[in-house]
Amino acid sequence: MASRIAKNQKKKHSRTRQIFDTLLFIIILGGIVLSRLIFWQAVRVEGHSMDPTLAEGQHLIVFNQNQIDRFDIVVATENDENDKEKKIVKRVIGMPGDEIEFKQDTLYINGKEVDEAYLADYKAAFKADKLQNTYSYSKYFQNLAQASPAFTVNREGQADFKVTVPDNEYYLLGDDRIVSKDSRDVGTFKAEQITGEVVLRFWPVNSFKLLHE
């Protein structure tokens, strides 16, 4: 009799444990899904506009609530040629109210020269051979670079140009200025179009890197 009671208690304890484990799993999973919706998103890099900083096919973690600062890499939304919303990855160059000026690949913000150290390799390659070796995988990109008077030009192909950023808007550029379609083409981005800051590159594993400074 005692052994039967003990056996029943053991079964009851086992069922209780299973229910507890199931509920715990549901709570944890729900927490992950909720945090995914509110705090972060995963984004895959499409195209070459952020080379060499980010390569096509890499996967990123984006924090939705981060304050946006100059030179942050961010995810923004825009409409494609079919008027469908798409996500793009770009770098913040101009903050609200800024005067952005480029003179022969030198950036000036509100009249002060600013170094874009993250472009050093590509700018050097542009001066050396107009990125012909770098773009060996694409004849189209080679032709774009060959025809460009500088690494950073505006929509009209001018190497000297100036832009004033409206209030509550941001001037976004890709790191590969020859290839990227960005604020030079579509204008500044409203604050609500920027969905978050890229903080981590997590895939492929050998490219793992924290990107938020």
Question: Order of helices and strands, N to C?
Answer: HEEEEEEEHHEEHEEE
Number of helices: 4
- Class computed from helices, strands and strand pairing: alpha+beta
% residues in beta strands = 25-35%
| CATH homology superfamily of the largest domain | Umud Fragment, subunit A
Under CATH at level 1, the class of the largest domain stands as Mainly Beta
CATH topology of the largest domain: Umud Fragment, subunit A
Q: What is the name of the CATH architecture of the largest domain?
A: Ribbon
Helix content class? 25-40%
Q: What's the N-to-C terminus distance?
A: 68 Å
Q: Stretches where pLDDT falls below 50 for ≥5 residues?
A: 32-37
Shape: globular
Q: Can you tell me the number of structural domains?
A: 2
β-strand number: 12
The main sheet comes to: 8 strands, antiparallel
Q: What is Rg? A: 24 Å
**Overall mean pLDDT score?**
84
